[in-house]
Amino acid sequence: MIPLVGHWKELAFLRERIDAYVKEILTAKKEKLDLHIGTMIELPRAAVTADRIAEVADFFSFGTNDLTQTTFGLSRDDSGKFLPQYVEAGVLPEDPFVSIDGDGVGALLRMATAKGRGVNKKLKVGICGEHGGDPSSVHFCHDTALDYVSCSPSRLPIARLAAAQAALKGKKKN
Predict the structure, then answer these.
(1) Could you tell me whether strands 148-150 and 124-128 are parallel, antiparallel, or unpaired per DSSP bridges?
(2) Which residues contact 171 (CB under 8 A, 6 or more apart)?
(3) How much is the pTM?
(4) Most exposed among 124, 126, 133, 172, judged by the fewest C-beta atoms under 10 Å?
């Protein structure tokens, strides 16, 4: 997984080198490996140009913490000093570092997923980061038809429960 890709040519450049290096090692060791190379979508530019990036990626893993940070133009380290007041005053419905902001960051996720899968039908898409342990974010990912969510081990029980609830909710709709 290559982080912080902002341009498809960057991923193509790095993928070419990784593929060559891995091939060299596997040939020398007479081994085979089913290698998947993808990128973290952490920059708004990457989300907007996801169709081009998907041409050279096997998967997208949205780095939702960094994508939130770059979309809002906020530092996670500093925003904790004023975000609680924004939520309390109704400026924001909730802290976007706790739960995916559906209107902004979520729109980028939906758009990038659709654009990426539009050119690469086999593209696997998911999120990584603390949003993966937030129940409403897990439901958002399910509704967006992402393939997976990941989070820190301590948040796994909550994420699993939320994923099961989202799956059951989806079955009721059909």
Answers:
(1) parallel
(2) none
(3) 0.91
(4) 172
Distance CA 87, CA 109 (A): 23
Token pair of 147 as six digits? 């393939």
- The H or E element containing residue 127 is strand 124-128
- CATH classification of 8-173, choosing from 3.40.50.2300, 3.40.50.2000, 3.20.20.60, 3.50.50.60? 3.20.20.60
Sequence ranges of the domains in the chain? 8-173
pLDDT at 33: 86
Tens digits of per-residue pLDDT, 55-78?
999 999 999 999 999 999 999 889
The secondary element (H helix, E strand) that includes residue 28 is: helix 8-29
